[in-house]
Amino acid sequence: MRLAGFNANYTFDSIVTTDVRMNELISTAKKISKTNCSVLIEGESGTGKELYAQSIHNESNRSSGPFIAINCSAIPKELFESELFGYESGSFTGAVKGGRPGKFELANGGTIFLDEIGEVPLEVQPKLLRVLDNNKIVRIGGSFERDLDVRVISATNRNLIDEVSKGSFRQDLYFRLNVINLKIPPLRQRKYDIIELARYFLKGLNEENDGIYKKFSPYFEEMLMKHQWSGNVRELKNVVQRAYYMSDKVLISSVTFPKSTEASNDFKEHEKAATTYNLKDIEKESILKALSANKGNIIMAANDLNISRATIYRKIKMYSIDMNNSYKYGAVSK
Q1: What's this model's pTM, rounded to 2 decimal places?
Q2: Are strands 136-137 and 146-147 parallel, antiparallel or unpaired?
Q3: How far apart are CA 192 and CA 15, in angstroms?
Q4: Which of 27, 120, 126, 322 has the largest CB neighbor count within 10 A?
Q5: Which helix (H) or strand (E) holds 279?
Q6: What are the residues facing 42 on neighbouring strands?
Q7: Per-residue model confidence as pLDDT tens digits over 58-89
Q8: Domain extent listing, the chain
Q9: 32-45: per-residue pLDDT in tens?
Q10: For 110-144, b where at least 16 C-beta lie within 10 A, e where not — what string?
């Protein structure tokens, strides 16, 4: 029996596209659906990240289990732990008698979707990492562990590598979440999908309004093709709906775009100029800083980084770190 309101309604058949890159992305997503590995979905707001998350869940062996979606940006900072991990009765003022399970417990046997994962407060991130690593959870105010069987899919419209470099997102948590990376291209980079999607939305509107079968004029479609779509598919759907209901005629020819259509995320900012400070730089600098802080003691540095001795030796070799000199400086030479 499924929990009411915690269902995934979309499948891969729900994704409308003719774009080659999108079809390759769908193929990859289908391939990893049957596994239990963590997935990080990246893309601008409005590109359809939850659509992919729900599709992966429905394609997986967990499809009969719950799909719990959480918008991390909508949770007040002080409520994060209780929302994610639950609490026991009397654990804090206002706690419900008998306690309450958190979203991870509710997702047991299914999938948890952590949308806007970059918004998780820094102080909560170590606890989240511990849950992901151990597959166990302890409610706030609780004294015993509860076993978990949950597949984790997260999404972000931020550039998490930048967040790691700024110290606002833990590197170890990033690695734990980003086992498989799916990056959804913005709508402006897949022009042929614009008309395909617009006609799909139009078809749905015609079906909802029995007896009315409107269509687009060539001018209307031309205007859609010229627009930049910083709000992506969500903006396109909004524009089509507005034009449909505002048109008194069968032929839709008038189009109105939202006044503010600037992309409100980090991906557009990085479209034209790729950052030179990549993940390998961050990882190498982290190792060097740990070695410097521990005066070259590799075992202590590995403990600080929460990685095994074998892993840190492998990374030292990979990055050609000179143990005679490099640990003294704790920074990557540019």
Answers
A1: 0.76
A2: antiparallel
A3: 14
A4: 120
A5: helix 279-293
A6: 156, 183
A7: 999 999 999 999 999 999 988 898 899 988 87
A8: 12-183, 187-266, 279-328
A9: 999 999 999 999 99
A10: bbbbbbbbbbbeeebbebbbebbeeeebbbbebee
148 C-beta neighbours (distance < 10 Å), count: 17
CATH 1.10.8.60 fits 187-266, yes or no: yes
Q: Residues of 182-216 as b/e, b for ≥16 C-beta within 10 angstroms?
A: bebbbbbebeebbbebbeebbeebeeeeeeeebeb
Query: Strand 136-137 relative to strand 151-156: parallel, antiparallel, unpaired?
Result: unpaired
What would the two tokens of residue 185 be?
A: 């291209």
**Tokens found for residue 323:** 């143990």
Residue in the structure block whose two tokens are 């929302």: 83
Q: How many residues does the chain have?
A: 334
In the chain the first and final C-alpha atoms are separated, in Å, by 57
CATH code for the part of the protein at 279-328:
1.10.10
Closest to 63 measured CA to CA, from 110, 100, 25: 110
CB neighbourhood size of 7 (10 A): 15
